[in-house]
Design a protein that fits this description.
Elements lengths: L1 E3 L2 E3 L1 H13 L4 H15 L6 E7 L5 H4 L8 H4 L4 E3 L6 E3 L12 E7 L6 H10 L20 H8 L8 E4 L18 E2 L22 H14 L9 H18 L1 H7 L6 H7 L3 H14 L4 E6 L8 H26 L6 E7 L2 E2 L11 E2 L3 E6 L7 E3 L1 E2 L6 E3 L4 H11 L7 E3 L5 E3 L13
Parallel strand pairs: 3-9, 3-10, 6-14, 7-8, 7-9
Antiparallel strand pairs: 1-2, 4-5, 6-13, 10-13, 11-12, 15-16, 17-18
Length: 439
């Protein structure tokens, strides 16, 4: 067992320790410090970070990662398989640049779940838990279970930057649920590809000198002398936000991490001056500066109409440039071994092309990519049938994927969380790591 201040501690001991600290009349700041100590006790010794790229709408696996050239035309579509950097593995001709870095990632071709609704698909892929009753569509914090980023913020190590950052907006089902707002994402509500890109709230407001801000901090510390047992939960969460914001505003390293304009024009052009390209570049900068989990929204792949046109002209070119640039850049900087890159989506697309030359929602089978962090790459795991309709070998659930990601990040997927009223909730709802991809 590990120790805190010379005492042996278990998970139950740590919870008792926190409760005792509150009852002893410690300030809120001191209780928060104890929380950080306890989190450090459960955190991994390895600093593995994650760039989590979510392609919203449903990537068509049979047109990108899992082509079926021998299927009828209404199934196979207009895309063609091409060879890659790994002999025997083929992907779509839509992705010529990605084909050259297939040796840097694993393709999981057998993801499967049973929900064809976008919002509910977001939830299960972001959290590893099926969504219950309710509407999960719309860009809102509607989590019924903590998302992966919030799990990392709760159980992983922290640094100068917030542990969980979302760009270029809040990602659907990317919230902390019962863990509370302090474990939610720091949201960059701006597109780094925009010429006027700027991250709000990381510098002192104009007209507020440092001495005035110092007085504000002193006043806040005085407020924190209130008995934490009597302090309202929203007040505690608000204080967390103040502390995080103050840390960002006073840390030169943190501020520089967000300044994507510090990159050379050549580097920015290598990634592509597109939303996905610049988000990936910013994601690299953020994990390089100490962020543990960066979620990136890449949309929108909901190709009910003109599927081939949408892929070839609108969606794949920027994706095909950004993903290889990110993997190559991480490798050249010596960061790929310490950064897990996940490319996921909420479900796949129907085998049959519809009357509008599009493909509809299909959760029965789809593909996900994993790269870096010691993963066994240059391989395909799982398979689908001749129509890319059903998993025919090695089914992988979102729960399995979540357990795999957590294990790579050094977090025990069997951990049990507790709600504010003490109800135990498993971190992952029955998932098992995909051992074939773990290094």
């Amino acid at each position: 067992m590990k120790r805190i201040a010379g005492l042996k501690t278990s998970a139950n001991d740590r919870r008792t320790f926190l409760k005792a600290g509150a009852l002893a009349g410690l300030s809120l700041g001191e209780v928060m410090h104890l929380q950080d100590v306890c989190r450090a006790e459960t955190a991994s010794d390895e600093d593995i970070n994650c760039i989590f790229i979510f392609s919203l709408g449903g990537m068509p696996h049979q047109d990108m990662w899992d082509l079926k050239p021998d299927a009828p035309a209404e199934i196979r579509g207009d895309c063609h398989p091409i060879s890659t950097s790994v002999p025997g593995i083929q992907i779509s001709d839509l992705l010529p640049k990605v084909s050259k870095v297939v040796d840097k990632f694993a393709i999981l071709r057998s993801l499967t779940h049973g929900d064809s609704d976008h919002g509910r698909g977001f939830h299960i892929m972001m959290t590893g838990k099926k969504a219950g009753a309710g509407d999960f569509n719309g860009n809102q914090n509607n989590n019924q279970h903590p998302c992966l980023g919030s799990m990392v913020a709760k159980l992983g190590k922290t640094g100068a930057l917030p542990p969980y950052i979302s760009v270029p907006n809040f990602l659907n089902s990317g919230g902390p649920s019962f863990l509370g707002a302090s474990y939610g994402p720091f949201v960059i509500e701006a597109d780094p590809a925009a010429p006027e890109f700027q991250v709000r709230d990381i510098t002192l407001p104009a007209g507020v000198p440092r001495d005035r801000n110092a007085r504000r901090q002193a006043a806040l510390r005085a407020i924190n002398q209130v008995d934490p047992q009597k302090a309202a939960r929203p007040v505690r969460s608000l204080d967390d936000f103040y502390q995080k914001a103050f840390g960002l505003m006073t840390s030169k390293k943190a501020q520089e991490a967000f300044q994507i304009e510090r990159e050379s024009a050549r580097t920015r052009e290598t990634y592509g001056m597109t939303s996905i390209g610049q988000c990936c570049l910013l994601g690299r900068r953020l994990v390089e500066s100490g962020c543990r989990f960066v979620s990136i929204e890449n949309g929108h792949w909901d190709t009910h109409r003109k599927n081939t046109y949408s892929l070839r002209e609108l969606l794949c070119p920027s994706f095909d440039q950004a993903i290889p640039a990110l993997l190559n850049d991480l490798e050249q900087r010596g960061m790929l071994d310490s950064t897990l890159v996940v490319v996921t989506t909420e479900f796949g697309r129907t085998p049959q092309i519809n009357q509008l030359a599009g493909r509809d929602h299909w959760p029965n089978a789809f593909s996900v990519l994993l790269a870096g962090a010691g993963a066994k790459v240059g391989q395909v795991i799982g398979a689908t049938d001749k129509r890319a309709a059903e998993v025919s070998d090695r089914p992988i659930t979102p729960q399995d994927l979540t357990a795999t990601i957590l294990r790579v990040l050094g977090i025990d997927h069997s951990t049990v969380l507790h709600t504010p009223i003490g109800r135990p909730v498993p971190l992952v709802d029955g998932g098992k790591p995909v051992w074939e991809v773990l290094g």
